[in-house]
C-alpha cells in the first residue's frame, strides 16, 4: 500500500490517463486503508519482521504512529508532500536505525526544500545513527528537538504534524533505550521542549496569517508532548507512568482536531476568500477547535487532567525537593496549555471571519472537517479505545485487559484516579439546562454585562483627542478610547499645562491626578490577584516547601 501511494502521488497525469481525475480519491482511499490496517494490527498486537524482506517490520510504537501518519497523508495529497508522508511511514516501519535515518532524513529534506532549512533539518536524525548510551546522545537529542520544532513552525497545512511525529517517535525510542537520565541531561531536554513550546506560542499570538498561526499552535503542541515524554521516560518521579498516558492521550483526539484546523487554514489561504458560511460547517470547525481546547470534557482537557494527576502522584511518591520540582514543571505545563487555548481562540476568530464579498467554502473543504470532527470526538469521549489501541505507543507497563467500562474512562495502571468524559459531558449539560431553566423561570441573567461607573476622562488621566475635527456629529465610541502615552504627552506638552505647572499650587493638582491614576492601577492589580488566586497559592506553597527544607527539623 505504501509503495502504491508513493507511485500514485508522483506519477504524471498522462500516465494515469482516465484515472488522473480520481487521483485525490484514490490517495484518500489508500491512506484510509493503510490507517485501518495499522489500527487493526495495533489492536491485535502484531509484532515481528517481514520474513520475505527483513528490513521492515512492526513493534510496539510503529503501528499506532503509522495510523497517525496515515491521517496526515490523507489530508496532504500528491506531490513532494505525499512522498514525504510515504517515506516517514517507511521510516517508522524500519527495523534498522540507519534505514530509519535514511527515510526520515529524506522526508525532512522534501519538507524543507531549498535554503538553510534543507541543509540543517537532516541533522535532526543524527541521534538515530549513534549508540544510545553515547555522551553525544543527549546534546544531539536537544538539537533534534529544536530542529524539528523549527520544521513544525515553518510548515503550512497538515504537513506541520509530520516532522512532529518523526521527532516524537525518535525521542521516545532513544529515551526508552537509555532509561533514567542524569539531572543535567533531563534539564537540557526539558529546556529544549519548553523553548519550542514558547516559540510556537509567540508565533501563534503574533502572526496575522492563518496558516502561520496554526503552525505555531502545532509547534506548541509538539513542545508540550516532548516535555511530557521526557518526564515519562527519563525522570525518577514516582508518577512517571501517568505522564506516559498523557503523551498517549495527546497523540489521539487533539492531533486529529489539530489536523482539521491546519486543513481549514490551508484551504482558506489557497482559495483566497473562502469562508465557512453554512451553519453545519461553522459548527464542525467549532467542534474541532473545542477538541483541542482545555474545556471539559474535550481532548485537551484529558491531557491536562492526566498531567495534573501525574504531578499529584509524583509529589506523593518523591522527596520534598523533587516534589517541588515536579510542582513547578506541572504548573509550567498547565500554563502552556492555558496560553495554547488563547491561541485557539485567536485562530477561531480568524478562520470564522472573512470579507463581505467572500465566497462560501467548497465541499472538498468541508468533508475533511466532518472526518476530523467525528474522529476527534470519538477519541475524546471514548478514550479507552485509543488507550487500548495505542498502549505501546510509548514504552511502559502494559494496561490491564480492557472491559466495556474501560472504553469510556481514562485510568492509570496501579493508581485509583479515573475520569469518565461522558459523565463530565452529562454534568455540563445538566448545569446548562439548570441555568437556562432559572433564567426562564425567574427572568434574570447570571452573567450580566458590567457597566462603566465613571467616564473615561475621570479615570486618572486627561482626555486627548488626536483625531481631526469633522463637520458632522462626533463618534462616541472613538472618544471612549484613551491611549495612555499620547494622553500624557499631550497633557504635559500643552501650553496651558506648562503655564499651570509654573504657577504655585500646580504640584498639588498634578499630585491629585497621579494619585487617581495610581489608585486605579492598584484596583486593577488587586483584581488580577483575585482572578489568579490559584496560581498565587501554588507559588506560595512552593515557597513554603522550599523554606521548610532549610528551617524545618
UniProtKB/TrEMBL annotation:
Highest taxon of source: Bacteria
Name of the protein described by the UniProt record: NADH:quinone oxidoreductase/Mrp antiporter membrane subunit domain-containing protein
Regions crossing the membrane: 20-40, 52-75, 81-111, 123-152, 158-176, 183-205, 211-233, 245-263, 283-309, 321-345, 365-389, 422-442, 531-551
Record key words, sorted: Membrane, Transmembrane, Transmembrane helix
Signal peptide coordinates: none
Source species of the chain: Acetobacter lambici
Source species taxonomy: Bacteria, Pseudomonadati, Pseudomonadota, Alphaproteobacteria, Acetobacterales
Amino acid at each position: 500500500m505504501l509503495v502504491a501511494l508513493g507511485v500514485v502521488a508522483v506519477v504524471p497525469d498522462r500516465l494515469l490517463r482516465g484515472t488522473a481525475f480520481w487521483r485525490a480519491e484514490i490517495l484518500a482511499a489508500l491512506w484510509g486503508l493503510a490507517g485501518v490496517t495499522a489500527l487493526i494490527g495495533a489492536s491485535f498486537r502484531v509484532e515481528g519482521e517481514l520474513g520475505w524482506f527483513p528490513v521492515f517490520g512492526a513493534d510496539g510504537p510503529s503501528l499506532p504512529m503509522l495510523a497517525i501518519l496515515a491521517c496526515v497523508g490523507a489530508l496532504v495529497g500528491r506531490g513532494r508532500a505525499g512522498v514525504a508522508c510515504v517515506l516517514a511511514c517507511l521510516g517508522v516501519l524500519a527495523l534498522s536505525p540507519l534505514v530509519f535515518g535514511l527515510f526520515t532524513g529524506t522526508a525532512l529534506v522534501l519538507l524543507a526544500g531549498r535554503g538553510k532549512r534543507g541543509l540543517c533539518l537532516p541533522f535532526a536524525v543524527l541521534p538515530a545513527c549513534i549508540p544510545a548510551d553515547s555522551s553525544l546522545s543527549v546534546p544531539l537529542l536537544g538539537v533534534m528537538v529544536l530542529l524539528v520544532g523549527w520544521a513544525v513552525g515553518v510548515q503550512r497545512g497538515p504537513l506541520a504534524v509530520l516532522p512532529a511525529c518523526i521527532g516524537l517517535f525518535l525521542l521516545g525510542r532513544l529515551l526508552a533505550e537509555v532509561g533514567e537520565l542524569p539531572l543535567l541531561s533531563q534539564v537540557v531536554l526539558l529546556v529544549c521542549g519548553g523553548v519550542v513550546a514558547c516559540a510556537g506560542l509567540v508565533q501563534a499570538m503574533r502572526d496575522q496569517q492563518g496558516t502561520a498561526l496554526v503552525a505555531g499552535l502545532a509547534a506548541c503542541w509538539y513542545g508540550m508532548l516532548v516535555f511530557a515524554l521526557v518526564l515519562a521516560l527519563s525522570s525518577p518521579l514516582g508518577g512517571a507512568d501517568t505522564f506516559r498516558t498523557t503523551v498517549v492521550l495527546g497523540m489521539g483526539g487533539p492531533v486529529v482536531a489539530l489536523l482539521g484546523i491546519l486543513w481549514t487554514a490551508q484551504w482558506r489561504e489557497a482559495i483566497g476568500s473562502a469562508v465557512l458560511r453554512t451553519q453545519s460547517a461553522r459548527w464542525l470547525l467549532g467542534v474541532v477547535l473545542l477538541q483541542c481546547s482545555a474545556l471539559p470534557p474535550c481532548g485537551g482537557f484529558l491531557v491536562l487532567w492526566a498531567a495534573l494527576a501525574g504531578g499529584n502522584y509524583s509529589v506523593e511518591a518523591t522527596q520534598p525537593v523533587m516534589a517541588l520540582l515536579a510542582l513547578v514543571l506541572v504548573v509550567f505545563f498547565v500554563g502552556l496549555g492555558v496560553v495554547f487555548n488563547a491561541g485557539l481562540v485567536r485562530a477561531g476568530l480568524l478562520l470564522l471571519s472573512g470579507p463581505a464579498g467572500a465566497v462560501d467554502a467548497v465541499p472538498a473543504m468541508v468533508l475533511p472537517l466532518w472526518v476530523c470532527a467525528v474522529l476527534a470526538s470519538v477519541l475524546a469521549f471514548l478514550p479507552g479505545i485509543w488507550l487500548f489501541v495505542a498502549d505501546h505507543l510509548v514504552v511502559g507497563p502494559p494496561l490491564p485487559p480492557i472491559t466495556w467500562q474501560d472504553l469510556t474512562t481514562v485510568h492509570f495502571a496501579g493508581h485509583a484516579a479515573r475520569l469518565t468524559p461522558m459523565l463530565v459531558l452529562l454534568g455540563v449539560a445538566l448545569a446548562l439546562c439548570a441555568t437556562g431553566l432559572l433564567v426562564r423561570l425567574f427572568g434574570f441573567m447570571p452573567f450580566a454585562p458590567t457597566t462603566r461607573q465613571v467616564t473615561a476622562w475621570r479615570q486618572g488621566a486627561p482626555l486627548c483627542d488626536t483625531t481631526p475635527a469633522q463637520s458632522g456629529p462626533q463618534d462616541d465610541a472613538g472618544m471612549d478610547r484613551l491611549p495612555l502615552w499620547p494622553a500624557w504627552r499631550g497633557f504635559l506638552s500643552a501650553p496651558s499645562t506648562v503655564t499651570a505647572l509654573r504657577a504655585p499650587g500646580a504640584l498639588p493638582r498634578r499630585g491629585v491626578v497621579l494619585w487617581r491614576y495610581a489608585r486605579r492601577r492598584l484596583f486593577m492589580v488587586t483584581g488580577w490577584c483575585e482572578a489568579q488566586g490559584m496560581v498565587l497559592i501554588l507559588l506560595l506553597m512552593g515557597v513554603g516547601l522550599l523554606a521548610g527544607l532549610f528551617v524545618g527539623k
